[in-house]
Amino acid sequence: MTVKILAACGAGVNSSHQIKDAIEKEFKKRGYSVQADAVMVKDVNEDMMKNYDIFTPIAKTDLGFTPAIPVINAGPILYRMPAMAKPVYDKIEGVIKKENLK
Amino acid sequence: MQTIIDLANAVFKPVIDLGAAPIMLIVLTLIAWAVGVNFFHALEGGIKLAIAITAIGSVIGLLTTTYQPALNAFVKSTGINLSITDLGWAPLATITWGSPYTLFFLAILVIVNLILLFLNRTNTLDVDIFDIWHLSFTGLLAIYFGANLFIATILVIFIGILKIINSDLMKPTFNDLLDDWENPMTTTHLNYMMNPVIMVFDKLFDKLFPWLDKYDFDAAKLNEKIGFWGSRFAIGIYLGIFIGLISHQSVKSIATLAFMAATCLELFSIIGSWFIAAVEPLSQGVTDFANKRLGGRMLNIGLDWPFLAGRAEIWAAANVLAPIMLLEALILPGNRILPLGGIIAMGVTPALLVVTRGKIIRMIVIGAIELPLFLWAGTLSAPFITHTARALHAPGIPATGLFSSSTKEGPIEQFIAVLVGKASKGEMMMVLYAALALIAYTALFFWYRHEMMKRNQKYSDEGKEVADDVKFVATHGAAGSAD
User: Fold this and answer.
1) What's the gap in Å between the CA of B424 and the closest CA on chain A?
2) Where is the Phosphotransferase system EIIB component type 2/3 domain (chain A) (predicted)?
């Protein structure tokens, strides 16, 4: 089963794509099948969320509704320092294991 | 000397004649390799950049070829000359990254950032390499209007230093807005250089209309109600229909305009993301290079602005400002842009959020007041943008018509670049105007700095962790300590 992750940023162009690429690369290394999509945060809605297993915004995000899927802040991936990104990947892996998504 | 020039021409001219895409493939690959990136990763980035330059040319061509006849008819039927096609920011980024000067300005700004860090004049390490294009755009604009490379570089360094100072000043406000005083995120994004101007209006608001704040509404609820009607492609469709109707097009043409605008706005974003992927190896290489030289010092990390994008006020204000901007564009003297690609004003609203700290009515009112600056700057920059795009020799870019962006970040910096460029030609009046503009710009920035330090002092007095050099009363005993 492929784990589906939703990344979101301002334009859906820069930061969210960095997060998407980094997550896909890291989880390939960890032996998971992960597919991430990058979108504009303003376009995220409850219907869109139904298609994903985990939501990874850059920081705390006020969507106007409470997401039904786990939310993990992925901002530290953008710092470009592996030691700071690792806890984010570990949290995602923790959710994958806990929710039995693999 | 002549022998050296002849030799350089013999070596470089055939490469230059290949056009921007192959040149940038070679240049980006070699530079990323030089900063320590694996050669094949560097080459991958270079190839992606060449593809993105080629693709953006084709989509610009698609949009302008479709829209130019309708915009000309629009001018005829309304008498309003709004004939410049608004591409939005992504194509401008692509065009600017298509210039080798952008890599030169990148190198200069990385060095400036490191010097400021070593001198303890900042706590921010800027890792947002992609957005260097904003300052490169400013430098190239100055060159287009007459500055030499030296003057343009001085201007880029000057604004670059102010941006880094600003990133430190804003840091406590970011912590407040994110409700997270541990995070290291800040930004050197150019859009926040509008803060000083916005601060002037915010202070006027404090004096004259503080009662308006009580009408602030729930921005997240508004965004949820607007839903997909406020998305990029939906706005492309509205504007296509609007332009088609006003310019008396047939139903078939109106449908073509609507769907073509929606298609191009989506494609601009997709191609924009290719650019991010293209410069990613270089970004990582430059960050590793800087980190190695900083010996593990704890720093604020300068990112792109969207770590604030989770604040609903940014999008609520952008949604409300879109029709206001369209209306202003129609009646604003001196404006020639009909908003399209830039109508979701994400280059405008983040700075409004930071200065007003989320007071939505102020964001909308001040946003409406400052939008003309963006439209005028976009109009002024259109010949430069069009010229630079055509110089890429990417297939598809039309030979006629002008294009620009209605909400390009840094309108004030664009005006200054034009004045500095013109002053460089030696005309005394222009030298005087440029000097006065630079003095006013600097004075306004330092007044803003003072106001932000007052704000930061209040945060500190409330027990929040604030670095000594962005407030008045030191509590850490040494300048330069990180938040």
Assistant:
1) 35
2) 4-62
